Amino acid sequence: MFPREPVLLGLLVLGLHVGSWDFEDVSKSTNFFSMCVEFAVFHFNEHHPDEYAYKLMWVGRSQRKKLSWTYLMDLKLGRTICRKHDEDIDNCPLQEGPGEKTVSCTFVVDSQPWITQFTLVNSTCQQNQGKGPPSPAADPLPLDDVPGS
To answer: What family is reported (predicted)?
Structure first.
């Protein structure tokens, strides 16, 4: 007969280890992930109190929750010279000089891309001055009407 304690302990450790991998890396170029990034940037612009629009500068982490269509992403957004509701914000230049700002955000977006439905589950943003990395002591940037932020 096998001793029960080592087998149970091994299964417990394996279960905790495997269960902690809720999100897995995905390609930044997949269609569903790209759609979630666009939604997150749009939502940021709609709920951020700044009168200027922000656009995507780069994507850091890109992950999907196992067995779901929930995506986790780290995005860096830059403040443009265009107002929020101007046309063609994607081609709008970034502000330079004293008005230059970047924002580092982590978004969790749940998606049902086959019916084009997206829900922002959580977001956390830090505003940075200039193009540098966020300050560790920077306060989180408030977004209006965002559950969990």
So the answer is: Belongs to the cystatin family.
**Average predicted confidence (pLDDT) for the chain:** 81
Q: Which residues are CB-contacts of 41 (< 8 A; sequence separation ≥ 6)?
A: 54, 55, 56, 75, 77
Sign of the dihedral defined by the CA atoms of residues 119, 40, 89, 28, in that order: negative
Contact indicator for 81, 89 with CB cutoff of 8 Å: no
CA-to-CA dists, residue 59 to 29, 39, 147, angstroms: 10, 14, 23
Report the percent of the chain where pLDDT is more than 90.
Answer: 64
Q: What is d(CA 64, CA 21) in angstroms, rounded to the nearest whole number?
A: 11
pLDDT band, residue 112 (cuts 50/70/90): very high
Letter string b/e over residues 123-139, b meaning 16 or more CB atoms within 10 A of that residue's CB: bbbbbbeeeeebeeeee
